[in-house]
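Record 1 of the preview.
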Amino acid sequence: MPVAFGRILNSSIFDEGVLLMPRGRIKRLVVGRGLGFISTGGRQNVFFHQSAVADSAFEDLREGQAVEYEVEDYAEHSQRRKNRAKELRASVVKPV
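->
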């Protein structure tokens, strides 16, 4: 996977030498807890916390909305929860 700015990017696209953020759609929001999940089109969803939302307020996001995101390696958390599969966590989420 490509690496940019110290973060691993999932399904990144290069356009004329510029690294574009991958896109997905918000699958589920849990407003009361300040978290959500992004559907990437693959089998694994990407978790995000309200603190990762940029260029918008968390409260303005809607399920089904298109977003761009950056993925950080969430292996440390997964190692503490050995019974779960490796989780992907978005470090930045921006509405498209």
